[in-house]
């Protein structure tokens, strides 16, 4: 994210790990005088949209050149043509599958939703969850009917952009603690609507840069489901009812 120069993030210096205990840590920049996001909400919306457009714009520029650059393995200046990431990333303490895939809908269904459903089922074997997932996975493509094959281009995502992972200094908003991968830009806006959420200025500013698409709200609910399932897997049955209710609504859509 830092390499895109679109949004302020703490500088990462190096990582350390203890191979005996499998524990690790990252040494990062200390940003002084950072406080909760408030006045910087509008600027953050614009900056996040520009982060999402960075890889898309790289692809547009490269498409005009004779030597097309295919899928890269870092986010500096190579266009990333597939969904995923070059390594596992975590949303919370559980690693996510980031295998490269050229189909976003298939990637999201398999490596995000199904992976979470299976994780929850391993913990509690919930029969209703299993039955709802068998129904929901059939209708997932319906939420993308307005998107042609070329419309969803991989964007570098923060991945876990809830209110607790954003702040501001006197000069600029700051985001941190990412769960990054390359995916559909709308995915980042789903968790931004829940778990504290961001205000209207944030969303209005974002959509002034990237226009709000048809079926956006329904897709965001589909993307919110990942985070509720992830919380269910991490924290137990207190997130069961929200997950089940979302799945029921989506199955009826």
Automatic annotation (TrEMBL):
<keyword id="KW-0808">Transferase</keyword>
<protein>
    <recommendedName>
        <fullName>protein-ribulosamine 3-kinase</fullName>
        <ecNumber>2.7.1.172</ecNumber>
    </recommendedName>
</protein>
<comment type="similarity">
    <text>Belongs to the fructosamine kinase family.</text>
</comment>
<dbReference type="GO" id="GO:0016301">
    <property type="term" value="F:kinase activity"/>
</dbReference>
<dbReference type="Pfam" id="PF03881">
    <property type="entry name" value="Fructosamin_kin"/>
</dbReference>
<keyword id="KW-0418">Kinase</keyword>
<dbReference type="InterPro" id="IPR011009">
    <property type="entry name" value="Kinase-like_dom_sf"/>
</dbReference>
<dbReference type="GO" id="GO:0102193">
    <property type="term" value="F:protein-ribulosamine 3-kinase activity"/>
</dbReference>
<dbReference type="InterPro" id="IPR016477">
    <property type="entry name" value="Fructo-/Ketosamine-3-kinase"/>
</dbReference>
